[in-house]
Amino acid sequence: MGSVASSVLTAGMSVSDLHGPQLRVRDLEEQLRQLRTATICALNQMLDLKDLSTGTHSARLAEWAIRVGEQLGISDLGLRDLEVSAILHDIGKVGVPEATLNKPGKLDAEERKQIEKHSEYGWAVLRVIPGFSQASLMVLHHHERIDGKGYPSGLTGENIPLGSRIIGVIDAFDAMVSDRSYRKGLPSEEAIRRLQAEAGTQFDSEVVKLFVGIAIWDLQEVTESV
Predict the structure, then answer these.
(1) How far apart are CA 192 and CA 208, in angstroms?
(2) pLDDT tens digits for 156-169?
(3) Of 3, 91, 107, 134, which one has the greatest count of Cβ atoms within 10 A?
(4) 4 inside domain
């Protein structure tokens, strides 16, 4: 009999007694996983009530973000945080007036300020949820710019969380190619050109390079399937 089993039996315990605590730990881990998933889904559905286009938009961002994050060598835990922040990056828009969100024309200065508050609102919502602290920081800073001209903190370069830099690139691309109440979406090729033109100023150059490769591959697959 092995030394571990012998010591257990010596202490008056059977090997089967070990399974109880292990199973309880697994059960708790599964419950936490389910709670995490349910929280993400509930928040995303709440945002859908505000803006019906958000659910599909967020799903696309999450898929692209994970693919970029994997190429950058982000850890499994980091990828989970990245996925949460990509799905819920716009959750703060629940605090923005619908008239501003859906305005068919150009926003005035006050309306622009209202829109820009959404990243702070999103951070305020997510940071109080256990396990979402890192994701909340990615949400807070996903509209920062490499050159420091973004919001809300004016961070520069690598001072911006990597997850925020990834979401910033992908969010911008998806926004450019999507139809809005005040304009039609751009062709994907033009959106890619604009990302590349702003690499190193608005966007992280390495993230742009990796994402453009993914976007071009996806476009080729769509074209070949038609």
Answers:
(1) 9
(2) 999 999 999 999 99
(3) 91
(4) no
